[in-house]
């Protein structure tokens, strides 16, 4: 009787592995379902200034890339100048952060569903290369802010984010004592500080030279594979395989 089950089990194993393959490709070359993202990545030869590295394959439109360079972009009516003018050396990191957020098609492994009015999905724990985070922090130490989480808690009564009453404008270093505090705290853990370095293929680069291609493609492939390989083996698959094996042994015995 038992041997009759073997084809069924093999079919189950095969189906499971097909599901894994499917999951893996679904995590690659995708755009998040959020406020300004395109539904699919594609070429955008008119991307603006700091967003141009993504022009071969982007989730942002040219107008989005243009808008996010403005001091108060109409994308979110959000300003980094909420404690006076941010220094340009610091501001460029926020523009780059925005370009990565809006344009990158390589953040699929870190997309999570959310229950927010303005977007259906977000990024969570994107492993940011340590140098990119470190440099961001160093260049912003002397700029000013009034909050250590920029997602929540602003006073929006004027239509633009303002410091809520009870907060004080102080240096970034006060609100973000370490690079990790900045990169991880700023957008509610959208980023995680990676211990990997730029060029390792194991962390996402906010900055890259497109002449060498987009280094984040390989990073996404690595984490997509790790994720989908990790999904089943701890659960269904080894169970099915050992069942199949046991049945073989029963047949022999
Ligand atoms: C932002 O404001 C600064 C200072 O007022 C100005 O020099 C800069 O050109 C502005 N940037 C943009 C993109 O409007
Ligand atoms: C930003 O403000 C402008 C002008 O007040 C308004 O037309 C626009 O709808 C606002 N955009 C967002 C995203 O709130
Ligand atoms: C999302 O929010 C709505 C309204 O607040 C709530 O009814 C719903 O249960 C929430 N869904 C999840 C998945 O949290
Ligand atoms: C929000 O800002 C307005 C001025 O723009 C101020 O009158 C109000 O008290 C502030 N509210 C809070 C909760 O900070
Ligand atoms: C990063 O940390 C992980 C886990 O702690 C470790 O396995 C890995 O070797 C570290 N990588 C580098 C480049 O230090």
UniProtKB/TrEMBL annotation:
One of its GO terms (cellular component) is external side of plasma membrane. Pfam families: Folate_rec. Residues 30-205 form the Folate receptor-like domain. Residues 1-21 form the signal peptide. It comes from the Eukaryota. One of its GO terms (molecular function) is signaling receptor activity. Belongs to the folate receptor family. This is Folate receptor beta. The lineage of its organism: Eukaryota, Metazoa, Chordata, Craniata, Vertebrata.
């Amino acid at each position: 009787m038992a041997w009759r089950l073997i084809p069924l089990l093999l079919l189950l194993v095969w189906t499971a592995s097909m599901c894994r393959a499917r999951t893996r490709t679904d995590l690659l070359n995708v755009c998040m379902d959020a406020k300004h993202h395109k539904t699919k990545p594609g070429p955008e030869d008119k991307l603006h200034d700091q967003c141009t590295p993504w022009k071969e394959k982007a989730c942002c439109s040219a107008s989005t890339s243009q808008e996010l360079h403005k001091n108060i972009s109409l994308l979110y009516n959000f300003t980094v100048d909420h404690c006076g003018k941010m220094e340009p050396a610091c501001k460029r990191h926020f523009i780059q952060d925005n370009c990565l957020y809006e344009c990158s098609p390589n953040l699929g492994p870190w997309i999570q569903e959310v229950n927010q009015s303005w977007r259906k999905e977000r990024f969570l724990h994107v492993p940011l290369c340590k140098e990119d985070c470190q440099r961001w922090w160093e260049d912003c130490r002397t700029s000013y802010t009034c909050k250590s989480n920029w997602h929540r808690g602003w006073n929006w009564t004027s239509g633009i984010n303002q410091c809520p009453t009870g907060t004080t404008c102080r240096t970034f270093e006060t609100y973000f004592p370490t690079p990790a505090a900045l990169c991880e705290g700023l957008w509610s853990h959208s980023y995680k500080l990676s211990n990997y370095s730029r060029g390792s293929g194991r962390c996402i680069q906010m900055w890259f030279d497109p002449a060498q291609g987009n280094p984040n493609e390989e990073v996404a492939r690595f984490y997509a594979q790790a994720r989908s390989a990790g999904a089943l083996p701890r659960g269904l698959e080894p169970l099915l395989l050992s069942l199949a094996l046991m049945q073989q042994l029963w047949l022999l015995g």
